[in-house]
Amino acid sequence: MGTKRDYYEILGLDRNATLDDIKRAYRKLAMQFHPDRVPESKKKEAEEKFKEISEAYAVLSDENKRRLYDQYGHAGIDSQFSTEDIFRSANFSDIFGSSGFGSIFEDLFSDFGFDFFGSSRSSRRRARRGRDLQVKVEVGLEEVLRGTQKTISFSRLQLCPSCGGGGAAAGSGKRICPQCRGTGTVYTSAGFVRLGSTCPRCGGEGKIIDRPCPQCQGRGVVKVRRTLKVNIPAGITEGSSLRLRGEGEEAEGGKGDLYVKISIRRHPLFERDGVNILYTIKISVLKAVLGGEVEVETLEGKVEMQIPAGTQPGTVFRLKGKGLPDIHSRSQKRGDELVKVNIEVPRRLSNAEREFWEKLAKLKGESISSAGGLREKIRKAFR
Ligand SMILES: [Zn+2]
Ligand SMILES: [Zn+2]
User: Does pTM top 0.85 for this prediction?
Assistant: First the structure.
């Protein structure tokens, strides 16, 4: 399971590409990777490539989806649309017209159980693919740093092992549906018009089960608990989804996908800001004035950091490379940890300390209140 590539990169375009650019780039690549035009040994590879460019085109040629993608990347698309949604709404006939080119889609995407080119060839009924599933996984920032492997467990429908999904008991089969006589459609007359609708008895299949399979009660599928190890790449972001092809529910038309939706656990010390992490420390006013070393937490343990003399409250220091990796980049480069310094003013002083501070104040010519003086002033102000 790899990370999905950038749609623009797939089509060789930059982010300002116009719709015409997108169409042109897609048409060219589609011709190049048409699985019927490559040698048999390269066919599988070309099919994958063709699906990849088609998905990129389907998203970028749709104004809405493109905006989502520009803003949130793959996570924005995956969290709102299944692969099926993406392809269903795309206008491929615009690219290939009614040339025979459409058959490629029928072959490659038949598991979605729908027709890209409308009614032209849809007389053949297709069984539906299993549903997509979603599982939520929570990871900590330390896991975002290195990437991690999680074991997930979920239940899904699978084809019944007894009847293989047919739903009929062993030794029995299906028979022609008596209600629609095998056509899958029933008609009602309304005046001159005859209205056809899906046969309610067989659900349009034209056949019904003679004796239902005892294991699945004729449904063809059974619920099974599945446990999987999922690799979560370093740098993963809140709300993104990893797609595991074919790990969704199974139906006669094929398997759906599993989407692993990521949420990032709140960290007790750090806040995340993209590839950077934010951390706040408190230092004493003495350290702020005189400078010195402080201990700073990082995702990989404590480090020493030098505070220069005269550090102001709110100053932000940057620990280079102590942040998180960028999931979109292949380089190992990491973001930074930004350390914000708060300065702690002592609330209580011992008598000896007070003497020192008062001496200092005198030295600087500051007028100060004596002990309890401030409280006295406030009381007066509210009288
Ligand atoms: Zn069964
Ligand atoms: Zn029927």
Answer: no
